[in-house]
Write a structure and sequence with these properties.
The protein has about 130 residues and is α+β, with helices and mostly antiparallel strands. The chain has a single domain, classed as minor pseudopilin epsh domain (minor pseudopilin epsh fold), CATH 3.55.40. Helices cover about 35% and strands about 25% of the residues.
């Protein structure tokens, strides 16, 4: 009986929350998109920003100031994802090599992840401990 209980407990702990998995996927995707846009803005000398659009009426987000030929996505893979830029309304992407520190909070249901950059390093998912300390 004890072996079955231990096995059940291990299985319960190993099962991941599907919302958390989807949010992690969206966070990784946003990191890649922000870095691609930041590289293009620097290389092309464009004043570019990323703007979340949480009104549910249009694009979920958009890149402003970059050439349309880049054809960057404007929607989350999961339509329930919501993004909020911490302390601002947009994320600055260029053309300057050094930008202010920036963070974006992604939410899906009761799950939350933060993406950030210190302005020099690449955007990355901020670990939960580091996010809680801020």
């Amino acid at each position: 009986m004890a072996i079955v209980a231990i096995g059940a407990a291990l299985v319960a702990v190993s099962i991941r929350d599907p919302a958390n998995t989807r949010l992690e996927h969206e966070a990784g995707r946003l990191v890649a998109l922000l870095e691609e846009a930041r590289t293009e803005a620097r290389a092309g000398g464009f004043e570019a920003v990323w703007v979340p659009g949480n009104d549910g009426k249009g694009d979920a987000f958009r890149f402003v100031g970059l050439p349309a030929a880049l054809n960057l996505p404007t929607r989350w893979l999961d339509a329930d994802v919501v993004a909020e830029v911490v302390g601002a309304t947009v994320v600055q992407l260029g053309p300057d090599a050094i930008l202010p520190p920036q963070r974006v909070v992604l939410k899906l249901n009761d799950q939350r992840l933060e993406i950030g950059s210190d302005g020099i390093a690449a955007f990355a998912v901020v670990p939960p401990v580091a996010a809680a300390a801020r």
